[in-house]
Design brief:
Distance between the termini: 91 Å
Mean pLDDT: 82
Structural class: mainly beta
Number of helices: 1
Number of strands: 30
Strand content: 35-45%
Strand order of the largest sheet: 1-2
Length: 257
């Protein structure tokens, strides 16, 4: 006989929720979540019982992200490209968009053109970036400047601030110590701030401990200063008393808030 054995009866095909094992032509039960299957594993479903939806061979109650439950086919259908949530798999059935895209009539379109940023939220709009800025993530957060400008703290400048130099369309500090007033395009100091002397492209304090350099000579730092770069009490860079040092740091922190 060419029939298939299911529950000791021979029939032409296996009933719902059963599958055939092949050469031995016996119908075996699918996993209980499957309506049809290719094997008895929970991951071998080809269709699902009512209330569940097929996703990568498994029947689940809730579809994964970027998918929508199709009640007609009982499958989890993938949302259109650039959609993160949807009510159908078509391009015009999006309800949420991926980064750099915005929702326009249930369609996820590229976010904002160059030189603009998205305001985000439920009803995003495109607004212009700052001056000289060709790409940004917000009103004060430029990421790329126009060819004739330089990036500094989220802004595009046509000239770098004092103690900085331009490189690769960005403003970089002349030196880590902050002693350089002006430098060339490779970061070599050309002039120094008060309290330092230029020496072979570097700004150094040529004076002994407790002294600062000014007008080609060394001068005494203010009282309680171990090191300084000027005559003012606020010019101290190190104190000779740890208690005073901590108070100075606290004062500077408060002053910079």
């Amino acid at each position: 006989s060419s029939g298939i054995n299911a529950e000791s009866r021979c029939r032409d095909s296996c009933p719902s929720s059963y599958y055939t094992t092949g050469e031995d032509r016996i119908c075996k039960r699918c996993h209980y979540t499957c309506e049809t299957c290719a094997g008895d594993s929970i991951h071998q479903c080809t269709s699902c019982i009512s209330g569940l939806f097929l996703s990568s061979g498994t029947c689940i109650r809730d579809c994964p992200a970027n998918h929508v439950a199709n009640s007609n086919t009982r499958t989890c259908d993938k949302c259109a490209d650039n959609c993160v949530s949807c009510f159908g798999s078509a391009d015009n059935q999006c309800t949420g968009c991926a980064s750099h895209f915005r929702l326009e009539g249930n369609v996820c379109s590229p976010a904002c053109p160059d030189g603009q940023y998205s305001t985000g939220g439920q009803d995003p709009n495109c607004k212009p970036c700052g001056q000289k800025c060709s790409s940004c993530s917000g009103p004060d957060s430029c990421t790329v400047c126009e060819d004739n400008a330089f990036l500094f703290n989220g802004e595009c400048l046509t000239k770098c601030p004092e103690s900085m130099f331009k490189r690769d369309r960005a403003c970089l500090p002349c030196d880590k110590a902050g002693s350089c007033l002006r430098c060339n395009d490779v970061g070599q100091c050309l002039s120094c701030k008060d309290g330092y002397k230029l020496s072979e492209g570097n700004c150094l304090n040529p004076c002994e401990k407790g002294l600062y350099f000014s007008e080609e000579s060394c001068h005494t730092c203010p009282t309680n200063c171990d090191a300084c770069n000027g005559p003012s009490d606020l010019s101290c860079t190190a104190c000779n008393d740890p208690t005073i040092q901590s108070l100075m740091m606290k004062y500077n922190l408060q002053d910079n808030v």
